[in-house]
Specification:
The protein is an all-alpha fold. It contains 4 helices and no strands.
Amino acid sequence: ASAKAPARTALAMLLLREGKTEEAREALEQAAAADPAFDLPHSILSAIHLSRKDTAAAEASALRASELAG
């Protein structure tokens, strides 16, 4: 597991609080790539997709988070 994944996820959460959704999405994608077994980035990505009315992407991210969480 990469230490970058939790750091990128924390950064994304701060960016979301500042309303920087696109930057947060990018940080979460980087977190997911850094540690493919880390479920939290996928869970947060699901919420971002849902807020953009992209239900297919939201469902896919939620499903991936659920699979990883076991």
